[in-house]
């Protein structure tokens, strides 16, 4: 990472910001709102809709109206309008889009400010950047954007290992990891509820009660959101206990006091879901923990234990005839697990020579970790170590890049496909339903 210039890091920051799941979903909301507006104009409904029913700054007429001024939507006054639900749905989507934008900007601005203040107050962290020639503000922006977008990139070659003793910095990044990924739906729902108490009451109420109709993936029903929080915290607690039990006195945590170990292990466990930043060399930790990390990386971000039925119908139940038309295609599509197994087998074939000559570095477990990490867009990697070679090479040097850096070109191309499939896995959430495991 340190070979990139300050300008290149800024370009990467921009790409990570606009490629983040929350940003792209917000753009989707605004496009959906524009689509509704266009549909209204196309259907020519403005000829029958009173201007008082229209939404803010929307001209429903197909002909220009020079003195048009939109009036605020008052649901109590116009509840009898036949266009009430349409207008309320439009206003709600518009409101949701700006809420997501505000959430995105406020959380990251607070994060950048917090990291900048920390670097100013604690010279030990800033000295690391000074020695590496990394601008402090660029580091703050790059790291926060990467963490919030679950990219796992850090401008240092050693990822966060060089900051393992800077517990304050780790505390700043932990909320960014959770708020930008696994806890986003719950926090978004809570924010809408709070804003609904003061402003946009009708829109907030509509969003909270019609999550399926709104069609925003990250807006979950109340019960699901509550169980999601419990599930995320449960996974973190399980990983924390497992890591403390097996790795408390490990070499990776040597030199840290008790408090630093607790914060470091918590940071590592939180990252196991979808962020991929690390304070230890993953290749040195217990295989049992690596298997746990593999499971965590495989699970979708909004996985939750939901033992009761929800009030709202699922999207599949609401599709009706559309669902019946697609059932054949869904049955023929492989599940995500099936795709992963196929990719792992293909990579084991392309890397069979390295597996034979360098079996410790190219162990099947390391390959599985790399593939599952790529599919979950996490970024965890065991790296490559010259010390683990059975036949040491004189020109071998240890470098802090991903394990896939030693793969063949064919293996890297397959891993790129894995990352694309992982980013688009929401389009295949129902694949493989025809298989019955009994």
From TrEMBL:
Organism field: Fraxinus pennsylvanica
GO molecular-function terms, A-Z: monoatomic cation transmembrane transporter activity
Family, per entry: Belongs to the TrkH potassium transport family. HKT (TC 2.A.38.3) subfamily.
Position of the signal peptide: none
Gene Ontology biological process terms, A to Z: metal ion transport
Phylogenetic lineage: Eukaryota, Viridiplantae, Streptophyta, Embryophyta, Tracheophyta
Principal location class: membrane
Name of the featured protein: Uncharacterized protein
TM spans (from-to): 9-31, 95-122, 134-156, 168-195, 216-242, 279-299, 332-349
Compartment(s) where it occurs, according to its Swiss-Prot or TrEMBL record: Membrane
GO cellular component: plasma membrane
Membrane topology: Multi-pass membrane protein
UniProt keyword terms in alphabetical order: Ion transport, Membrane, Transmembrane, Transmembrane helix, Transport
């Amino acid at each position: 990472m340190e070979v990139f210039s300050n300008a290149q890091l800024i370009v990467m920051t921009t790409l990570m910001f606009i490629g983040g799941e929350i940003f792209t979903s917000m753009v989707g909301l605004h496009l959906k709102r524009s689509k509704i507006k266009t549909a209204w104009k196309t259907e020519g409904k403005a000829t029958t809709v009173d201007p008082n029913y229209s939404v803010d700054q929307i001209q429903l007429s197909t002909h220009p109206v020079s003195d048009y001024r939109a009036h605020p939507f008052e649901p109590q006054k116009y509840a009898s309008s036949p266009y009430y639900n349409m207008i309320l749905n439009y206003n709600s989507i518009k409101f949701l889009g700006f809420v997501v934008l505000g959430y995105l900007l406020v959380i990251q601005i607070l994060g950048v400010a917090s990291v900048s203040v920390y670097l100013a107050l604690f010279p030990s962290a800033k000295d690391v950047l000074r020695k590496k020639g990394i601008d402090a503000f660029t580091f703050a922006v790059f790291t926060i954007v990467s963490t919030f977008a679950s990219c796992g990139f850090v401008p240092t070659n050693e990822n966060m290992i060089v900051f393992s003793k800077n517990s304050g910095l780790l505390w700043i990044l932990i909320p960014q990891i959770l708020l930008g990924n696994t806890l986003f739906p719950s926090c978004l729902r809570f924010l809408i509820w709070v804003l609904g108490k003061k402003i946009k009451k009708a829109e907030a109420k509509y969003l909270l009660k019609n999550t399926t109709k709104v069609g925003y993936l990250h807006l979950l029903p109340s019960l699901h959101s509550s169980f999601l929080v419990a599930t995320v915290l449960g996974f973190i607690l399980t990983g924390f206990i497992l890591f403390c039990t097996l790795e408390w006195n490990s070499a990776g945590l040597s030199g840290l006091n008790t408090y630093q170990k607790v914060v470091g292990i918590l940071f590592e466990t939180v990252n196991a879901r979808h962020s991929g930043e690390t304070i230890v060399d993953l290749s040195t930790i217990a295989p049992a923990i690596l298997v746990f990390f593999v499971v965590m990386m495989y699970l979708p971000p909004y996985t939750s234990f939901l033992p009761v039925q929800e009030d709202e119908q699922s999207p599949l139940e609401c599709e009706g005839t559309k669902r019946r038309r697609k059932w054949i295609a869904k049955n023929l599509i492989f599940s995500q697990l099936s795709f992963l197994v196929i990719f792992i087998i293909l990579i084991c074939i392309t890397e069979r020579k390295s597996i034979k000559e360098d079996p410790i570095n190219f162990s099947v477990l390391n390959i599985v970790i790399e593939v599952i990490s790529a599919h979950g867009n996490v970024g965890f990697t065991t790296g490559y170590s010259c010390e683990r070679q059975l036949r040491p090479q004189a020109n071998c040097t240890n470098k802090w890049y991903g394990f896939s850096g030693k793969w063949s070109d064919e293996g890297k191309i397959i891993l790129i496909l894995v990352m694309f499939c992982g980013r688009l896995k929401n389009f295949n959430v129902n694949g493989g339903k025809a298989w019955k495991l009994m």
